[in-house]
Amino acid sequence: MKTIIHKPVLDIFSTSKKKTSSNIPQKDAQALRNKEGTEQCPKEKIIMDYREKNSLVYFNLLKEGFDVEVRELKVADFLVKEVAIERKTVSDFISSMINKRLTKQLEELQQYQKRILIIEGLEEQELYTEEFSEKKGVHPNAIRGFLLSIILKYNVPIIFTKNSQDTAKFISVLSKKQQKESSLNVTKKSLTKKERKQFILESFPNIGPKTAKKLLQKFKTINNIFNASIKELQEILGKRAIIFKEIILSHY
Q: In which domain, by residue range, is 105 found?
């Protein structure tokens, strides 16, 4: 995917990525971009959608010393390692909830195993006051219900931030955490044969470490488990045995 280097065109509608009122002071932003280009940054690279380039979050990430790669992202506003982040101001959140744009974005976020929704601006504007709800024409309970749906139906954690600086801080901490976890994974020792067998079984739906161990203790080998009848598997897996067997026998 090619990096976009031209000046972004901002969407003028309420469903746009972000408001122009949060534009970066141009002199400060240019100074930080120059600094970013001339100094080697040891921190983790953050990929950002080009439509976020005029946001104060970008300004604050540069200020924190991060290497921010600006490009067109089809899904999400920020990518930190394998974590996809969608950012909404309070007004954007309500507007995109009403016109169902956010529903589509939440569906697209499912492409990533790890995803986060940031709702920004609670310091300046409450999410569901009566006055704000009347202005937007949506009941507070509808907002509460949608928030629950985001968590339970789409399995997307929500982070509420006070302002753009707070959002940048969260992304900063996430980046450092991901970098630390990556270094730990590199130094982790190789799996033993027993651990590899268990890992294979745990990749099946609803089979955790305990169940995987029970299967191996009973059938001894992976081959024996795969060749076992549904009735034999049901002694440990119960109803899950049917799904387990279907996956094994189904064609690619």
A: 20-186
The residue among 83, 74, 145, 138 whose CA lies nearest residue 116 is 83
Pairing, β 83-89 against β 78-80? antiparallel
- Identify the band that residue 21 occupies on the pLDDT scale cut at 50, 70 and 90: very low
pLDDT of residue 12: 31
Which spans in the chain are helix H?
A: 26-38, 56-63, 90-98, 101-109, 130-136, 140-152, 164-187, 193-202, 209-219, 222-227, 230-237, 240-249
Sheet holding 158-161, edge to edge: 68-71, 46-49, 78-80, 83-89, 114-120, 158-161
CA 114 from centre of chain: 4
Count of CB atoms situated within 10 Å of the CB of 202 = 13
**How do residues 138-178 score in pLDDT, each as one tens digit?**
888 899 999 999 999 999 999 999 999 999 999 999 998 88
pTM: 0.58
At 133, list the tokens.
């709800």
Number of domains in the chain: 2
Residue 88 lies in a domain: yes
